[in-house]
Amino acid sequence: MFNSSIGRKLIMALSGVFLIVFLTQHLVINLTSLIPDNGKVFNFISHFMGNNPVVQFILQPILILGVMIHFIMGMYLEVLNRRSRQTSYVVYSGKSGASWASRNMIISGLVILSFLIMHFYDFWVPEMVYKYVEFNPLDENRYFHELQEKFYKGGVVKLFLYCVSFVLLGLHLSHGFSSSLQSMGITRGPIKIATKFFAIIVPAGFIIIASFHYFITTINH
Ligand code: HEM
Predict the structure, then answer these.
(1) What pTM value is reported for the model?
(2) pLDDT digit string (tens) for 44-91?
């Protein structure tokens, strides 16, 4: 599968669609932090996800594996593309009719990777330490407060870095989602339009969540 161009594209497409499913559920869960109930629903879902053995020990490792496969294969494809451009007789001007997003998937991908490293350091690592290193007692009501404090402490610079990453995520999705479906043989017009819509709605949702918590906590402090 790794040796054929179609096989490599299919691996990219399947891991991409898998990450899109994760992203959708991640957005929906985080959107519950906007409900004006003092974090009740958000705490309930976060506690369930954070303590359910299937989520923690099966889905989470699969997710991390999916992220790694997508990034490693993306880098490998980029190297192969660059090599074939160098050996090709056709001079590549980088200015075909293709969009900026489609020509710069590696750039938007590397920004998302950098974001993920920062995001893991902000949220995931402290959570793992809290549960599996320090073995703190279970507290079902801490998640909402922790989320708000993190956006407050990160300041405007962190908010800016998050929002820039979400814009680049949107550009990555605007080409990546429809391209994944195309590799899987799905090419209908309305679906393509739906993928473009998704690429706007999802990053916009994340921008609203991050900005909301930053501004609310800054005003209240
Ligand atoms: C405002 C936006 C976001 C917020 C508030 C947020 C919040 C969180 C929180 C609280 C966790 C820790 C979950 C836990 O382990 O208990 C987490 C983990 C994670 N986030 Fe985000 N996230 C945001 C955006 C994103 C985006 C855009 C991506 C992907 C591009 C992403 C990818 C991940 C991944 C891969 C994990 C680790 C897996 C997991 O524990 O579920 N997040 N996020």
Answers:
(1) 0.93
(2) 999 999 999 999 999 999 999 999 999 999 999 999 989 988 876 655
Instruction: Return the ∠ at Cα 166 (arms to 102 and 22), rounded to 5°.
Output: 90
Domains contained in the chain, number: 1
Could you tell me the residue range of the domain that residue 211 belongs to?
5-91+98-220
Rounded Cα distance, 170 and 48, in Å: 29
111 lines ligand 1 (CB under 6 A): no
Cα of 120 to ligand 1 centre, how many Å?
A: 8
CB 159 near ligand 1, within 6 Å? no
**CATH number of the domain bearing residue 22:** 1.20.1300.10
103 C-alpha to ligand 1 centroid (Å): 27
